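Colleagues,

Please find the record for the two-part complex below.
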Amino acid sequence: MTISITINLDNLHHHEEHLTSSAFLRDIVIGMSDGLTVPFALAAGLSGAVNSTGIIVIAGIAEICAGSIAMGLGGYLAGKTEQDHYNSELKREYYEVDHLRHRELEETKEFFANLGLSEELQQQATEEVAKDKDKWVEFMMKYELGLDQPDPKRATKSAFNIGASYVVGGLIPLSPYFFIKTPLAALEISVVVTLLCLFVFGFFKSKVTGVNPWWGALRVTLIGAMAAAAAFGVAKFFEAH
Amino acid sequence: MTISITINLDNLHHHEEHLTSSAFLRDIVIGMSDGLTVPFALAAGLSGAVNSTGIIVIAGIAEICAGSIAMGLGGYLAGKTEQDHYNSELKREYYEVDHLRHRELEETKEFFANLGLSEELQQQATEEVAKDKDKWVEFMMKYELGLDQPDPKRATKSAFNIGASYVVGGLIPLSPYFFIKTPLAALEISVVVTLLCLFVFGFFKSKVTGVNPWWGALRVTLIGAMAAAAAFGVAKFFEAH
């Protein structure tokens, strides 16, 4: 699943010291906190509707499998797509700089005008930027189109880390069902263990994204609890009808 | 689930004509194509492992419930978090402009230096940008920190659209199981209908993100098929053991 609300950590130089570890950490935390939420809610939902934990384990494993592939492979292909998109726009900018130079000069000037520079300075700055073609194209990619060069290795690694964390995260709420035969008894342990883990991961997730960690931890825990409660209620309703 | 690979549509002025409809369209397509994938794979996985469609319907409904809440509520809270983060950085920049003016001037100059402007022009441009405090802070937010002001209404609407589309998308692969009592017979129809829908939605999704729509459609269909096949295989394996 892909939500396109992103806090671009790489530009937050206030938090520069966190950067090298945070990309990896962020993938782990994203995959794991989502892995904790959905399989947890699914198992909780089924606990209200079936009499054997065997079927819950199978459904849980199938969901972890599906979710991690959708998330990991989806992320990988999204990364590839971003790369393709960047390359095609790059080609286009080189073409435009060569063949529509006048229009590109105007757009560059417009950028400086939007910064609030004076007419004279707009002209001078445009001339200087346009001197070196490669640098100019780079400038247009970044400030006209808002595109940063994506790192292809990063996307692959990121997809793998997120997918793997989803599996690990998903096995946590499911694990009690492996050992306990009564669904509702397994659910009790699953709820305690999972909400605890969600709180801890919500805490770290918030640290990575730079918001108040206690409030963030509460939010993540709340989402998990609400998803599980809703799944439980809806499954019970459908089972009764 | 949150994958942070984003193509920032709002900056692609090549595609300006699509913009007003595309934010809504994108939410629908994202929610629906993910809703199609995971419940589809879960139902497929269970079809290989159980004898009655009743349990598949309940598991599917529980998953749709969990997934749409995790995605919708998760997206909503991520939007709120982004808003909080923006506001706290904004406050910080105002503070820095007032109390660490010298450092901020240096950072502004550095920005122009990175564009390749001459020493003299760097100085002049910095002075002009720094004249108007509000515009200067806006400049720092955007180009130093890479943060655009988030639209709070947008996040709420977006979360709702994505969540609702997930429900609609999830009901498509599940619908054959409502009417057919044999899991594998229902699966056959589910596979045909869902892969067709995934192809259509992959096509539109790619149009929105600006990549080759046929290739994009194939990718989305492939992810769905692989997730379903993997879930089927793994569930069958666990059912046999």
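Residues 9 and 15 of chain A are 8 Å apart (CA to CA).

Comments are welcome before we finalize the supplementary table.
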